[in-house]
Design goal:
Layout (H helix, E strand, L loop, with lengths): L14 H10 L1 H11 L1 H8 L16 H18 L3 H8 L1 H7 L1 H12 L4 H29 L5 H23 L4 H19 L6 H6 L3 H12 L6 H16 L4 H5 L2 H19 L2 H6 L1 H7 L6 H26 L1 H28 L9 H16 L4 H9 L2 H33 L1 H22 L8 H8 L14
Length: 477
């Protein structure tokens, strides 16, 4: 896509771009509920006491629940392998609308499961739907927004995701798993009703030679008074250039800019999950309960979720002012320190529980510090940069594979967290996360360029090593 900065035109309006981005990322809200679901329902599904009243008519062990929790990330990893092809074939809008179907079916299976297999299949389908949104929503948002607000709109995906995570934290602590499932299952339907009125990406419509529809989309997004001719001409010129200079997938993949984009994007995705975020999200209530703090574990979990929402919202307001690198570096530093502190606390607790009797507040502070800085930096920014770094002819496939990397690492982390804690100790497991977070500091410092305020074309030139805005951003790739 040509990233024409329509903010230079007085006739351009941004209000409808915000509306479109929020509508698209309502699907991310629904995806977030599938991640947050595991934390409050474990005590409702797994027998942990003599007075336990099962929600389902079949037994669920702790090992079963670990698999149930991680199947969402496995489904997301699988769908990311081919969602880029679907996005290009049927469009961004139709793809997201079609995802309502597996989303709804998944929640029906989870809600009315009569055996473990139905529950597993339902969670896997929810992962497929959520993972597909993680690629389609940022792609759509990056293509409809002006350069001046692209970073802000890009954070809406992560903002809506964490609001979705918070939703079951709050509802799950007050009601049954059945009611929670019904409420979560209604969200994809609500998304479909809203998003059906939002236009398709102008860049996609131009690529399919649907000029009239592209004009209508541009006028809806930029305002009726907007002079769309320059932006449309540039979109058409780039589309024609891509057709004339179309190269094979192998050739596009071997470009210097593509190789750098893959290295940076996939690296950010890997370190985002290797820092242990999904282990913390999935097992927040359990972590807080294990501290022995006088603060109720469910309340601590809700506070955790609220802080996450607030800090992602703050990130949305500052990412286009401070830039990507300036947020990533302090984020990765604090993640390193927070998980190292958690490791010390749990190691001391396992050695002598009395040694931590007076510092039950420490892991709560560490987790809250972790989530605040995660939500400002390494949480939203990898998804923003995924939509910024790749050229159009490789974006679908490369972006999908970046998402697959993210979710596959998330699957490994969530499915092995309990086993690693049992084998090595929960403190040592957090030290492993701290080690990866430390490596992410070095990765960001040496390899991640600043993309703030640059058009998508300028970013490609920058990755090729050219001077952009009289500044050459060098990466030690």
């Amino acid at each position: 896509m040509v990233d024409y900065d329509a903010s230079n035109s007085k006739a351009s309006k941004t209000k409808t771009q915000y509306i479109a981005a929020l509508a698209a990322t309502t699907g991310a809200f629904a995806a977030g509920t599938t991640l947050g679901w595991s934390s409050p329902v474990k005590s409702l599904l797994v027998n942990t006491s003599t007075d336990f009243q099962p929600e389902y008519d079949f037994e669920i062990t702790s090992q079963d629940f670990a698999w149930i929790g991680s199947l969402v990330t496995l489904g997301a990893a699988v769908v990311c392998l081919f969602i880029g092809t679907i996005l290009q074939a049927v469009g961004r809008k139709l793809t997201m609308l079609l995802l309502v179907i597996p989303f709804t079916v998944g929640w029906i299976l989870v809600t009315f499961a009569s055996n473990l297999a139905m529950l597993d299949v339902g969670r896997f389908l929810l992962g497929i739907s959520g993972g597909a949104f993680c690629i389609s929503a940022p792609t759509y948002t990056s293509e409809i927004s002006e350069a001046s607000i692209r970073g802000t709109l890009g954070t809406y995906f992560q903002l809506m995701m964490v609001v979705g995570v918070l939703f079951p934290y709050i509802i799950g602590s007050q009601t049954t798993a059945f009611t929670l499932n019904l409420m979560c299952g209604s969200l994809p339907i609500i998304f479909g009703i809203i998003f059906v009125f939002i236009p398709e990406s102008p860049a996609y419509l131009v690529s399919k030679a649907k000029t009239s529809a592209a004009i209508s989309s541009l006028k809806w997004l930029r305002g009726d008074a907007y002079d769309y001719t320059r932006e449309l001409d540039e979109l058409q010129a780039q589309n024609e250039s891509e057709k004339r200079n179309k190269v094979s997938f192998v050739a596009a993949l071997s470009r210097r800019s593509t190789l750098k984009a893959i290295f940076i994007s996939w690296g950010l995705m890997f370190f985002q999950q290797a820092s242990g975020i999904n282990a913390i999200i999935f097992y927040t209530t359990e972590i807080f309960a294990s501290t022995g703090s006088s603060i109720d574990a469910s309340l601590s979990t809700i506070i955790f979720g609220v802080m996450q929402v607030i800090t992602v919202f703050i990130s949305s307001m500052i990412v286009d002012k401070l830039g990507r690198r300036l947020l990533l570096l302090p984020s990765t530093i604090v993640l390193t320190l927070s998980t190292f502190t958690l490791g010390i606390y749990f190691y001391m607790r396992d050695q002598n529980v009395d040694s931590v009797a007076d510092i039950g507040w420490l892991p709560i502070v560490a987790v809250c510090s972790y989530i605040i800085l995660f939500s400002i930096g390494i949480g939203p920014i990898p998804w923003i940069m995924m939509g910024e770094l790749f050229a159009n002819d490789i974006k679908g496939v490369a972006g999908s594979l970046a998402g697959a990397v993210n979710w596959m690492v998330a699957f490994i982390v969530t499915s092995t967290f309990s086993a690693m804690s049992d084998q090595f100790g929960i403190g040592q497991t957090f030290w492993i996360f701290s080690g990866f977070s430390f490596m992410s500091i070095l990765f960001v410092y040496f390899f991640v360029p600043e993309t703030k305020g640059k058009t998508l074309t300028e970013i490609q030139r920058m990755l090729e090593g050219e001077k952009v805005n009289e500044i050459t951003v060098q990466t030690k790739f």
